[in-house]
Amino acid sequence: MEKEDEELFVPRLVTTEENFASGHRACIGCGEALAVRHVCKALGKNVIIVTATGCIEIYSSLLPQTSWRVAWIHTLFENVGAVVSGIESAYKARVRKGKIPAKEVKFVGFAGDGGTSDIGIQALSGAMERMHNFLYCCFDNEAYMNTGIQRSSSTPYGAWTTTAPVGKKSIGQMTWKKNMPEIAVAHNIPYVATACPSYPFDLMDKVKKGVAIEGPAYVHILSVCPTGWRCPPNLSIELGRLAVETGVFPLYEVINGEYRLNFDFPELKPVREYMKKQGRFRHLTEDVIERIQARVAEEYLKLKEKAGVK
Amino acid sequence: MTKGKIVGLEGSFAVAEAVRMANADVISAYPITPQTHIVERLAEMVADGELDAEFICVESEHSAMSACVGASAAGARVFTCSAGQGLELMHEVLYIPSSMRLPVVAVVANRALSAPLSVWCDHSDAMAIRDIGWIQMFAENNQQAFDLTVCAYRVAEDKEVLFPAMVHLDGFYLSHVIEDMVMPDEEEVVGFIPEYEHPFVLDPDRPVSMGCYGPPFIYSETKKAQEVAFENTKSKILETWKEFGDVFGRHYSPVEKYRMEDARIALLTMGSSGETAMLAVEELREEGKDVGLISLRLWRPFPFKEFRDAVKDVELLVVLDRAISSGMGGPVCSEVKSALYDKRKDLNIVGFIGGLGGRDIPVKGFKYMVNRALEKVKAIERGEEIETEMIGIRE
């Protein structure tokens, strides 16, 4: 598509309204900030967003400025699930008691992978189990990037981080990435999806579905972090695509327990293509890469089986 | 002039009644002994439609307070309660409503802290949260637990206050004991607590950013503003108690005095042990000792002026702590010493630690403290150092 065509058509597909203002302090090439921008476009104005401590909160809310053009609150690191529960309950009670008029407000939680799959998992699990009506977006950049690239349970196997360093006795992260979307699925919530800002329309569709559905919705968004992944910032979009095309991070939805693979490929690209562009995997030997390749293939097959894709 | 009817009620149920009459919108709590009867009663009220509230059965105390913060930020009147370990798990979150000016109301059924595990009363949990920036009050009996909870809503939600408020009641001693109390007419309680309206709630039509990130160039200023506002809450607390007294006929003050008019020796307690101490005061008076009793009703903001006034004619102050500040003695004793340091060099202050983990302090325990303190004064006069003594310990 020519540039002129883009200017003609894209505004018809996506709102030009920016509810997450530019001028924030995210690193160059931050996949997460891009994802937040897309998510906010999909959410619109009628929303209350709760954000965990982490990169998003730090780069968006430095006093006395804010990037949020919507109602927004941050309190702590590990309690997004609980805060959003409280807000949603407050709305329910106040509408029922006639204190405020009934209207369609969306309640949304934002957190990183640490705030979701590690320290915040309990509060999130509680909120999902109690079936509050909310959407939760996990922006997964695969480590504690805000504090300086420490490993989380969402860091992939073999990746270098500052607390899973490479050494004579270590290849970096020695454990496999926690499968957070599957943990969400296990709560029997109506909507779970994976997404990536390299596929912006897919991401926005999923956010819209997530907030439209009654009950908890969970969207796990792979957010490329050039700073922590040790890659050039101009590769952010490409790496997101490669994560999907290699099967490292498949894009799928689970709607009321039914799996749907959104992008399938006749043949996955080798994981090497995704990994070789990132400094965090640079130290890995062929045998480790093979091990990762085998695991990715196995997991992808399992997912295809669940989705009924031959 | 005391209006209402006399009922026999557990402290926990008295608190639940206050929350029901306050018509709380959101209750979020996690069960922990000895707070459980409060949440159970509230859950029943919600289940029976006696209270129209969302009851969030959260998965931890951390989430209990977090949900209260969210609900309060969204404009709801909220309630939670906890005790001991639960309050400690909540600790991190307790600073949020005070620094974000959200009028959460909480009740604590005071309990000891592990280890060893103890579900019984002391004030270790309360003393661990002295610096959270909440208005904190201590109840001496079930009537006060009810009254102070009602007052907590009115004070906390006042637009000139907007700070969270906490009522402490001793676990089991009050939470599980049935006492007679005056239950006021519901309409009068409802009339006493105005509708809650926070000026800056989370509202999509009027978006605000709450809980932003404060770098060094602005953090100190925000804390200063918070502290000035917090100290200003005291006048509202006094005003509320005054109006409560006018309406309901029960009068509260930050430092309550019993037989202090001519007292030269004062016992200082917090919570339910005050009533036992009163009996000790009577017996000591019969023995010719001019003893009185001071109970700290308001703990935060600390009532410096009222406290100094209360002890102005006292020569010996005997302080009971139901908690230990390890390596430092009793926390309450330390605080009252610091409150008097530059005011009363001539006053002897003798601290005792007792009543830990549910250990009773009988009347004779308080008499022992006074008599022992008189002995210690002699040691002080001889220039000897005195240590904080733990009472009732089997050697």
CATH architecture of chain A: 3-Layer(aba) Sandwich
Write down the CATH topology of chain A.
Rossmann fold
Fourth CATH level, the homologous superfamily of chain A? Thiamin diphosphate (ThDP)-binding fold, Pyr/PP domains
What is the number of helices of chain B? 14
Quaternary status: heterodimer
CATH topology of the largest domain in chain B: Rossmann fold
User: What is the helix content of chain A?
Assistant: 25-40%
Cα-to-Cα separation, first versus last residue of chain B: 50 Å
Query: How many strand elements of chain B?
Result: 16
Number of helices of chain A: 12
Low-confidence segments of chain A, given as residue ranges, are none
Query: Biggest β-sheet of chain A: count, sense, barrel?
Result: 8 strands, mixed
Structure description:
The complex is a heterodimer of chains A (310) and B (395). Chain A is α/β, with parallel strands linked by helices and 310 residues long. Chain A has helices at residues 3-13, 31-43, 55-60, 80-96, 113-118, 121-129, 180-185, 200-212, 226-229, 236-245, 271-275, 286-307; strands spanning 47-51, 71-74, 106-112, 135-140, 166-167, 170-171, 191-195, 217-222, 252-255, 258-261. Chain A has one domain (17-307): Rossmann fold, CATH 3.40.50. In chain A, the strands form two sheets. Chain A has an eight-stranded mixed β-sheet, sandwiched between helices. In chain A, strands 5-6 form a two-stranded antiparallel ribbon. In chain A, α3 (55-60) links the parallel β1 (47-51) and β2. In chain A, α2 crosses α8 (200-212). The relative contact order of chain A is 0.12. Chain B has two domains: 5-248, Thiamin diphosphate (ThDP)-binding fold, Pyr/PP domains (Rossmann fold), CATH 3.40.50.970; 255-390, Rossmann fold (3-Layer(aba) Sandwich), CATH 3.40.50.920. Chain B is 41% helix and 19% strand. In chain B, the strands form three sheets. A seven-stranded mixed β-sheet of chain B has the order 3-2-4-5-7-6-13, with helices on both faces. Chain B has a six-stranded mixed β-sheet with strand order 10-12-11-14-15-16, sandwiched between helices. The mean pLDDT of chain B is 97. β2 (71-74) of chain A pairs parallel with β9 (209-210) of chain B.
